[in-house]
């Protein structure tokens, strides 16, 4: 049975959790607050949303403590305690360390480490692109375009509840986590992503609701 907490109250609870659950750096707070408005429409209990939000905040905060640049390099998505970390780093050791730190959180049930290892030059170039995208620059990198295109297609396709899914494109490799009501819905989503121009690979971490 789903939580009967009214949507407005649910949003207030989640927003409060963002502020009070851990001591946050400014960057972590900004990243964690994104997407709160859609929470009332997801197929997650309010309690599940709060736990997932706390997990996400903790991982982001850990990453920033390790290296402030990781706030730009990496993205963290959590669905019902399952964690997907995406991005690109030039050091395999740092990639593993990020996942190991996240794994120490006893609330986390599974980690999907989709961080790509690239050269230092590639990492610097990607950081520059991402900074431009955040500043609203007119130059659109492949990954931003791919994510936007996928978003538009999933929202407009009947029978797909994209609010229950999170996807990231990193160097044209798309990783997705979340939940589908049926296997048919999941396959629809994967077909849309695979057929999106520019996508090289899809890493699927969607579960079908049982």
How would you describe this protein?
- The chain is of the alpha/beta class.
- It is built from eight helices and six strands; from the N terminus they run ααααββαβααββαβ.
- α2 (26-33) runs antiparallel to α3.
- The longest helix has 21 residues, at 46-66.
SSE layout:
Layout: H1 7-20, H2 26-33, H3 46-66, H4 70-73, E1 74-79, E2 82-89, H5 92-103, E3 110-117, H6 120-134, H7 142-156, E4 165-170, E5 173-180, H8 183-194, E6 201-208
Parallel strand pairs: 2-3, 5-6
Antiparallel strand pairs: 1-2, 4-5
CATH topology of the domain at 140-210, what is it called? Histidine-containing Protein, Chain: A
Number of strands: 6
Q: Describe the largest sheet.
A: 3 strands, mixed
Average of the residue pLDDT scores:
85
Summarize the structure.
By secondary structure, the chain is an alpha/beta fold. The chain has 8 helices and 6 strands. The protein has a domain at 140-210: Histidine-containing Protein, Chain: A (2-Layer Sandwich), CATH 3.30.1340.
């Amino acid at each position: 049975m789903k939580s009967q907490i009214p949507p407005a109250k649910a949003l207030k609870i989640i927003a409060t959790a963002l502020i009070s659950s851990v001591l946050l750096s400014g960057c972590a707070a900004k990243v964690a607050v994104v997407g709160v408005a859609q929470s009332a429409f997801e197929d997650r209990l309010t309690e599940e949303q709060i736990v997932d939000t706390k997990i996400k905040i903790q991982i982001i905060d850990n990453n920033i403590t390790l290296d402030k640049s990781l706030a730009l390099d990496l993205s963290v998505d959590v669905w019902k305690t399952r964690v997907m970390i995406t991005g690109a780093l030039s050091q395999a050791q740092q990639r593993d360390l990020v996942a190991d730190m996240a794994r120490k959180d006893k609330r986390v049930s599974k980690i999907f480490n989709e961080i790509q290892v690239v050269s230092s030059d590639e990492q610097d170039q990607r950081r520059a692109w991402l900074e431009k995208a955040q500043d609203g620059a007119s130059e659109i990198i492949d990954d931003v375009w791919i994510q936007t295109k996928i978003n538009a297609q999933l929202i407009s396709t009947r029978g797909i509840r994209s609010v229950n899914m999170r996807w990231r494109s990193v160097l044209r490799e798309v990783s997705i986590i979340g939940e589908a009501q049926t296997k048919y819905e999941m396959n629809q989503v994967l077909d849309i992503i695979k057929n999106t121009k520019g996508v090289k690979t899809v890493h699927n971490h969607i579960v079908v609701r049982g």
